[in-house]
Amino acid sequence: MLRGNLSTRPFYNERAVQVGLAVVTAVLAAITLFTAWQLLSLTAQQRDLAGRIARDESRANELRREATRVRGRLDPQLLNSTVLATREANQVIDARTFSWTALFNVLERTMPSEVQLLSVTPSVQNDVLTVQLLVNAKRVEPVGAFMDRLEAAGAFVDLRSVEEQTQEDGSFNVVCRGRYLGPGTRLPVEDEADDAAAAPTADRSRAGEN
Predict the structure, then answer these.
(1) Cα torsion at 33, 35, 37, 41 (round to 10°)?
(2) Tell me: the pLDDT tens digits for 6-51?
(3) Rounded to the nearest 5°, which phi and psi values hold at 67?
(4) How many Cα atoms are found within 13 Å in the side-chain-facing hemisphere of 109?
(5) How many CB atoms lie within 10 A of CB 42?
(6) CB 131 within 8 A of CB 180
(7) 146-192 pLDDT, tens per residue?
(8) Quick check: 155 and 180 in contact, CB under 8 A?
(9) Closest Cα to residue 125, out of 79, 88, 160, 155?
(10) Distance (Å, rounded) from C-alpha 150 to C-alpha 200?
(11) Would you call 110 exposed, middle or buried from its count of C-beta atoms within 10 A (0-12, 13-18, 19+)?
(12) What is the DSSP pairing of strand 128-137 with strand 172-180?
């Protein structure tokens, strides 16, 4: 009768262990290869970016030196005259695009009957279109109402009286100046009605004088 003591040498499935170790080794090898490939790729990209940065900095330094040489060759008086000529050309362009018809339309629909327009002078400075109006009225109050209407219509901003002169007949010549925005909108209905009602009254008063 044979007897054996198995406790001195436990049973192992060596093949399964070997297969598991082989799989783990293959995974680690794949990870190592991928990491090495990523490292090489990133290193190449870094070298490429460093080269681009160096080329861009060199180009920027070259352009700065060229700009310095160009500025050194420029005549300051010629440069100033060029700037002034450009500004005058812009003013001519603005003058051509300025619509006298639109301006007179907004003046006509906002001017009270007691106010008489004597002159209109537009000007452009620092890309701002300013219009100066010279008006005549027997009283200054209608001139103030005229300016209020122009601003309410959206045609002007910062419109104010800059000069007043009393004439021999007792009337006033008033210089109004403000930033012109365009024809704006129509006069509010109540203002048109007030102006229309004031006109017959003025006509009747002149008829009574005659």
Answers:
(1) 180
(2) 555 555 556 777 777 888 888 888 898 888 888 888 888 888 888 8
(3) -65, -40
(4) 18
(5) 10
(6) yes
(7) 999 999 999 899 999 999 999 999 999 999 999 998 876 544 444 44
(8) yes
(9) 88
(10) 23
(11) buried
(12) antiparallel
Q: What is the DSSP letter of 163?
A: E
Supply the pLDDT for residue 198.
43
Whether the per-residue pLDDT at 100 is higher than 90: the answer is no
Q: Report the alpha-carbon distance of residue 141 to residue 164 in Å, rounded.
A: 12
Place of tokens 């009337």: 171
Q: How many CA atoms lie within 13 A of 142 on its CB side?
A: 19
**Around 42, how many Cα atoms within 13 Å sit in the side-chain half-sphere?**
6
Do 171 and 94 touch, CB atoms closer than 8 A? no
Identify which of 176, 124, 119, 120 has the alpha carbon closest to the alpha carbon of residue 149.
Answer: 176
pLDDT at 178: 93
How far apart CA 166 and CA 149 sit, in angstroms, is: 24
Eight-state DSSP code of residue 188: P
Per-residue tokens: 160: 């104010």
Q: Across-strand partners of 174?
A: 135, 164
- Could you tell me if 172 and 193 are in contact, meaning their C-beta atoms sit under 8 angstroms apart? no
What percent of the chain has pLDDT above 70?
Answer: 70
Range 73-86 average pLDDT: 69
